[in-house]
Amino acid sequence: MIIKFGARARALIFVLLFLSLLLVLAHFRRRDEPRLEPLDSVTVPVAPGNGPLPSVKPAPDSATNITDKQWSSVWSRVPCVGLRGLNFDEENDDTLRESVIEGLDYPSPFVGSHDTVGLSQTWMTAAARYGPYGWGDDQAAYDGKKAPWNETDWAKLQNQCIYYNAHGFHDAAIIQPFARRFRMREPGEEIKSPVIEPQAANYVPRTAIVLRAWEGYNYTAEDLVNLRATVAETALRFGGEYTVYILVHVKDTGRNIFSSDENYRRAVEDLVPPEFWGMAVLFDETLLQSWYPEIKTHGATYQIMQPLQLFAHFYPKFDFYWQLELDVRFTGHAGRYLTALSDFAREQPRKQAIERSTWYYMPEFHGGYSDLLAAVNASLEGKGGLGWGMRIQDFEPIGPKPPVEDPLDDNFEWGVGDEADFIALTPCAYMPSLEHWVWRNWQQGLKAGTKTPGWMCQPAMGRASRTLLLAVHHAQAVQGLAMHSEATLSSFALWHGLKLVVPPQPIYQDPQWPHDKMNELFNGPGAIETHRMQGMEGMARGDVIYRQTDYEYITTTSASFWYTSDFPNRIYDAWLGRVGSQDGSSSRGVPYVLWRSGDGKVYAPNMMLHPVKTNQNRPLDSSGDSPWLVIAGVAVSLLGLSAAGFWWWKRSSRSRYSALRTEEVG
Q1: Is the bond preceding 611 in cis, omega lying within 30 degrees of 0?
Q2: Are the CB atoms for 492 and 457 separated by under 8 Å?
Q3: Distance spanning both ends of the chain, measured CA to CA
Q4: How high is the mean pLDDT of the chain?
Q5: Cα–Cα distance, 209 to 471 (Å, whole number)
Q6: What is the model's pLDDT at position 19?
Q7: Can you give the pLDDT at residue 452?
Q8: Beta-sheet pairing, 608-609 with 329-330
Q9: Are residues 621 and 288 in contact, defined by beta-carbon separation less than 8 angstroms?
Q10: How do beta strands 429-430 and 455-456 pair?
Q11: Which one is predicted more confidently, 293 or 641?
Q12: Which of 185, 316, 509, 532 is the most buried (most CB within 10 A)?
């Protein structure tokens, strides 16, 4: 049987071949500049020079106390009951044992600053960090009091804490275990556009911490101690100011979780460890389709904020909502870390906040954070930037109007003391100028289309106000407006004139690259004052962010907080003792950011790690889909080559056979 390829088939084969080769070449193309060489591996010495050995001592109270700060005048926090039945002021086994190390320099992050954000420069071993939550309690060397984990109910502990401190909250609503708070949208149900309600002066704002999980997640021992630590150090330590939930994506819609209480409860018990059952909130894609029928897709890659938007809609007693993934780790106190970020954001002015949010703050080049602010202001010549009275065609902004008409009359006073509507965890990028971000033109329903200025802040985590989440909820449910997951909250915050802040949290690199080159690649060449490119005045515009593909060899391996980096896993493995006792260099054994004492204990500085993968069950709808483009390109390329080769062989064979037949006939 001879297959004949017509002209259309041949054209299609060559088009497929051409496109597939372009896909592959786009990924593997050679860079325009030579590949950077990292600095020599850094070794943290046991003793500095010939001086005395570093000395480990308990951290002072000033570094570890939980204070009421700005709420002290309206609220006296009542200590809550810990997991062993005593309140935290009495139970030493529920208290983290943080340390300072005299005679040892604290590791300097390549971006960010502990001092600027207000983070303590403390150290912890994994045993001190997670020991109170059961880490190592099955070992003979465990020196703490064991807790009855099988009998622990974290929702009940949180509810007790809220009850003790109800006097401090406008609404002391508690967790309702197994309650089906989410529901399908009713036909014709009205969704009102939100308005900003001023914070009641005599009450403390409440914050929900929403931890994202999915059906099939394999909860390891490390996940359990991390979850226990997060609840204890936020909800319980801060007197109910925080409440922790686990938001679970039920992928099997056949479970029919919204058809009955029994189905819902059975799914909770199947998908979540027993001690966290009461904290679980379930959703599936049918729920998202019900509320957002005009949005093209509801998968986490494109719309990871939709479940959080619904959470804000159905859990209205909170003022703010942290969305964090289960692969985030705090090597220090989780509650103090998150509180430091929100405290920093509160004190930032609104003027030029969008422009400042693009900069990777490096103190050695930028000076103090006030110097960065002044330099950005100089590049904008004192103007207000994009956040001053910006409008798009699709809706009227709900954010506050500037107190003065001319931004030159505002001396960075507007917004200081106001809570941030969106706190991003890494700097944001201006989408129209992104060259390699595959979703830079993904949007839906906007009148100006891709010309609408948008902002991307990776990863899709952070803290959002209820106002912002309800504004996005209304835009998607009523108007059918949408941006990609990592651009949703930042873009809507900009369009609505809401306050966006990126605290310069400390981030480390390994391998370490030349810092001057990192400043140029992350922030762009030239002094801050010279950044006056049209449309991007006052913004950072480094190639690492705007030409991502060219610099994946830096970003995908070396940052302690970057959604594709392997460095967090290497830090965590060494910290937990899963690395042999080599010489302590970054290339072998303990990474340089850690310190190993003479007795073999490994100490970690105070930082936030992401991602730390403790299992192989990664979500099928995660946002790391770009490698599939390469795989698809290779597959299509092979198919195209095969088809082209087959066609050439058939054509060649037919010509040879025709000649033979002619001779035979002759």
Answers
A1: yes
A2: no
A3: 26
A4: 86
A5: 20
A6: 64
A7: 94
A8: antiparallel
A9: no
A10: antiparallel
A11: 293
A12: 509
**What is the predicted pLDDT for the residue at 419?**
95
**Cβ(100)–Cβ(229) below 8 Å:** no
According to DSSP, residue 81 is labeled: B
By C-alpha distance, which of 148, 135, 200 is closest to 169? Answer: 200
**pLDDT-based confidence at 663, cuts 50/70/90?**
very low
Token code pair at residue 54: 């570093």
Question: How crowded is residue 327: how many other Cβ atoms within 10 Å of its Cβ?
Answer: 20
Residues 189-236 pLDDT 10s: 999 888 888 777 789 999 999 999 999 999 999 999 999 999 999 999
Residue 376 DSSP label: H
Provide the sign of the torsion angle of the four alpha carbons 376, 378, 379, 382, taken in this order. positive
Amino acid at position 656, single letter: R
Rounded to whole angstroms, the Cα distance separating 461 from 423 reads: 9
For residue 504, the one-letter residue type is P
Cβ contact 575:593 at 8 Å: no
Question: What SS3 class is residue 465?
Answer: strand
Position 65: which residue type?
A: N
Burial (CB < 10 A; 0-12, 13-18, 19+), residue 151, is exposed
Closest CA to 384 of 409, 347, 417, 416: 409
CA dist list (Å): 439 to 274, 358, 443, 450, 624 = 39, 18, 9, 11, 12
Query: What's the CA gap between 449 and 444, in Å, rounded?
Result: 7
CB 175 within 8 A of CB 247: no
Predicted TM-score (pTM) of the model is: 0.87
CB 276 within 8 A of CB 173: no
Q: Which one-letter DSSP state was computed for residue 478?
A: I
The confidence band for 584, taking pLDDT boundaries of 50, 70 and 90, is very low
Give the integer Cα–Cα distance in Å for 170 and 593. Answer: 43
**What is the helix (H) or strand (E) element at residue 339, kind and residue range?**
helix 334-346
Cβ partners under 8 Å of residue 34, min gap 6? none
Q: Is the distance from CB of 359 to CB of 427 less than 8 angstroms?
A: yes
Cα–Cα distance, 322 to 93 (Å, whole number): 27
pLDDT band of 578, cuts 50, 70, 90: confident
Residue recorded with tokens 């915050």? 493
Region of poorest pLDDT, from 38-52, 119-133, 217-231, 265-279: 38-52
**Res 631 pLDDT > 50:** no
Side by side, the strands of the sheet bearing 462-465 are 280-283, 242-249, 207-214, 320-325, 462-465, 422-423, 500-501
Q: Do β-strands 242-249 and 207-214 pair in parallel, antiparallel, or remain unpaired?
A: parallel
Among 51-60, 112-121, 421-430, 528-537, the least confident range: 51-60
Of 51, 54, 132, which Cα lies nearest the Cα of 100?
Answer: 54
* Max Cα distance, the chain (Å): 110
The residue among 307 and 659 whose pLDDT is bigger is 307
Give start and end residues of each alpha helix (H) in 357-481. 363-366, 369-379, 466-474
Residue 663 CA to residue 256 CA, distance in Å, equals 73
